[in-house]
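Study this one:
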Amino acid sequence: MRIRRILAAAIATAALAGLGLTGAATATATTATATTATPAALTPGECEQGGGTVDRSTTSAAGLPTCKGGKYNGQDVD
């Protein structure tokens, strides 16, 4: 009887530890993806906050103005 309780406690501990590690790995992967993803088209404010200016004289293949300079250089501005 004592062996069953010890075995059950060991299995429960291992299962909970496994869930904790899996959750931590998922949270880390999600955070890394969220910080490196770039939007498809910026707002004019995002372009300016990134240190650039909206260049309406040149357009991208989608016909949108582009962000010139700064962090988002060359990206579409919607």
